[in-house]
Amino acid sequence: MSELTSRWMSRASEIHPATRDAEGAESSYADVVEGSLAVATSLLGGRASLEGERVAILVAPGASFVSAFFGVLLAGGCVVVLSPIHPAPETRYFCEDAEARIVLASAEHADLAAPLAGAFEVRPLAPELAHAPDRERVARAAEARGEGAPALQLYTSGTTGKPKGAVITHANLAVQQRLVGEAWGFSSSDTLLHALPLHHMHGLAIALLTALGAGATTRMMRAFDAAQIWNAMNDASVFMGVPAMYHRLFVAFDAEGEATRARWAGAARALRLATSGSAALPVTIAERWRAITGKIPLERFGMTEIGVGITNRLAGDRYPGCVGFPLPTVETRIVGDDDREAETGELWIRGPSVFSGYHRRDDETARAFTADPDGGAPWFKTGDTVTRDASASGSEAPFKILGRTSVDILKSGGYKLSALEIEEALRDHPEVAEVAVVGVPDEAWGERVVACVVRRPPSDPGAAACDAGALRAFVRARLAPYKVPKDVLFVGELPKNALGKVVKPALLRAISSPEPAA
Ligand code: MCA
Ligand code: AMP
Predict the structure, then answer these.
(1) What is the pLDDT of residue 96?
(2) What letter would DSSP give residue 351?
(3) Which of 130, 265, 354, 437 has its CA 20 to 30 A from that of 364?
(4) Ligand 1 mean position to 413 CA, how many Å?
(5) Does residue 276 sit within a domain?
């Protein structure tokens, strides 16, 4: 049995709460483990193991999510987490690309899962959870899975068209669970306040699995509602968020009267730990949190492909604008354009938490890794430009993230977005002749998605030209709402280089100037 599943099974008789839902109802570890055994038994049917088969789960946050997740792993499967915020075409793409056969859906998401029936076997989760567990059979199936077996397939946007499935192994998750838990001092007396989406590494592994690995309780909120989060801090010891969440917390805070602010600030001050990641934490946000709580959030750097790689330390100084130091086992190298070590350059990473590759995308996997110049193990190329900030501390300089190496990768509210994927969706519109998508710095989102469009006349000469609203609606029908451009600017032409490629930095400058090209 892998370290991940055996750690899970070791809690089979614990009555301590594993989860608490938004309304406060608790489920013990014993109950949630029992649920996972039931799901595993049902998924196995007559088989000895799912042998790495991808099982998609469309399940609301709570105890059932955890049971579904571990149920798939115990049966020898690999989890693909679907999100209710994705439109049907995107959800279908994830299931098809992953070659999933079964979709487990909780009752809340039955409507969203319904269109998948036919192409996939959609199974309501409730009867799976009620299935009589066959412990011995499940133990045999789990024991047959090694550390290198795929446990999780997470979809992540890249510099080519559609999102790709990053295959994360049992070993990757187990090492992250242990290292992050130790680095951040997690124990069974913690209650993690959790409002992150579960279809990404941050919410699923860095937050939920870390807490479960330490035997802590996770308060799983259904969505991010700032006032609800402030109120729930009372009942928590750790909060993990992305910078956009902190921004929202401050907006809600500022809208309240003195008494509420004092109560909220008191609860936030009493948290043992508040972390920030997934995007750069602006120093203004860090300092605002300090003004309320006395400390800046603990910032760390992570990626779908590696989990948390670099983190500020729990004890000792935290450096605003810096992400800290590599976790144990994480090796780093900063390289310049010539692939030689440099003070500032691309961050390469290797170690046991680095994923195994992209599902059925050997070319992209090969491009993501590079041989070690000294003949050691290959490095994963993060695509992030970093340096070490010698001015930030005494003896050891913490890492500082300077930005992405590619202008086509954007970060909005912690979600990684591919400009090319959004451009591709817009290009399908009959009145879009040319399009370029860029990320414009934004206080609330970090980067704001802006589409610059050169229009083609409507096919019906009498019809009005399409407007920004129509193009946004067109994208919304195809992609997740957070990928929909916040602004659509119509331009006469796009700046191009001699090869006819759009020069995005020039476009960004043009649209950021007081009089944008229109
Ligand atoms: C929501 N909207 C967004 C975003 N989120 N637009 C741009 N960027 C976003 N991130 C849109 C909605 O579609 C809606 O558009 C409008 O904004 C308001 O929606 P609302 O319901 O108020 O937003 P929300 O659902 O509350 O979401 C805000 C959020 C969310 C909670 C900050 O964006 C979020 O959960 N972000 C976290 C992402 C994350 O976990 N990333 C981790 C990746 P309209 O009005 O047009 O309908 S993993 C990773 O990065 C690595 C491993 C790491 O280091 O962690
Ligand atoms: P994802 O592919 O969604 O996992 O996003 C990973 C990317 O998020 C990284 O490659 C970084 O660009 C960005 N990121 C994560 N944490 C931080 C951070 N603390 N500061 C700046 N960027 C970050």
Answers:
(1) 98
(2) S
(3) 437
(4) 5
(5) no
The Cα–Cα gap between 511 and 518 comes to 9
CA of residue 165 to ligand 2 center, whole Å: 17
Name the residue type at position 381: K
| Cα–Cα dist 166/360, whole Å | 10
Backbone angles phi, psi at 298, to 5 degrees: -80, 110
Residue 435 Cα, ligand 2 centroid: separation in angstroms? 26
Listed residue (335, 348, 339, 345) closest to 379, CA to CA: 348
Using CA of residue 326, residue 330, residue 336, residue 342, what is the dihedral sign?
positive
What atom in ligand 2 is closest to the CA of residue 401?
Answer: 21
For residues 410 and 417, the answer to whether their CB atoms sit within 8 Å is: yes
Check whether residue 316 and residue 209 sit in a common domain. Answer: no
> Do 175 and 310 lie in a common domain?
no
With respect to residue 230, please indicate whether it lies within any of the assigned structural domains: no
- Of all protein residues, whose CA lies closest to atom 38 belonging to ligand 1? 414
Ligand number, closest to the Cα atom of 414: 1
Distance from residue 262's CA to the centre of ligand 2 (Å): 33
278 pocket-lining for ligand 1 (C-beta < 6 Å): yes
Tell me the pLDDT tens digit for each residue of 176-221. 999 999 999 999 999 999 999 999 999 999 999 999 999 999 999 9
Span 339-368, pLDDT tens digits: 899 999 999 999 999 999 999 999 999 999
Q: Which of 83, 221, 224 to mutate to test the pocket of ligand 1 (most atoms within 8 A of CB)?
A: 224
Structural domain boundaries enclosing 189: 3-223
Nearest to 145 by CA among 59, 71, 248, 76: 76
Give the tens place of pLDDT for each residue, 373-385. 888 999 999 999 9
| Residue nearest atom 8 of ligand 2, based on CA coordinates | 278
77 lines ligand 1 (CB under 6 A): no
